[in-house]
Structure of Osmotically inducible protein C, OsmC:
Amino acid sequence: MTERNATTQWTGDLKSGSGNVALESSAAGTFPVTWASRAEAPEGRTSPEELIAAAHSSCYSMQLSGLLTAAGTPPESISTSAEVSFGPRGDGFAITGIALTVRARVPSADAASFDEAARKAKDICPVSAALTGTTISLDAALE
């Protein structure tokens, strides 16, 4: 079993406070976070939603690559973006949806087999599974 760690140090209240999230497992760095970076403009800071978008787009790309390769149609390239929507819901704030957009070069795949692999990757990617209950849309196309 593999484990990954990140730690956030936060100072102050929600609206005017700030923190830093350290990606400890990879030593990839420390990134500043604020409420404004979540609900307003990033201004050089990240947010939990941006980190989810990064996790989802990379996980999805790897899952799709694995499915295509297993089907005998390995991809030349896959480009996936994940747009995580965050806003008011109910008594607070929530992730209100995720839109995955993927464009891939897969010379030996036809549109139907690619679409099937793209949908399956969305359903079984571990990050998608962790986000069960969140609406995840998919726009997938061959280049």
About this structure: Strands lie at 6-11, 18-23, 29-34, 77-89, 92-105, 136-142. Residues 64 and 121 are 5 Å apart (CA to CA). The two ends are 36 Å apart (CA to CA). The longest helix spans residues 48-70.
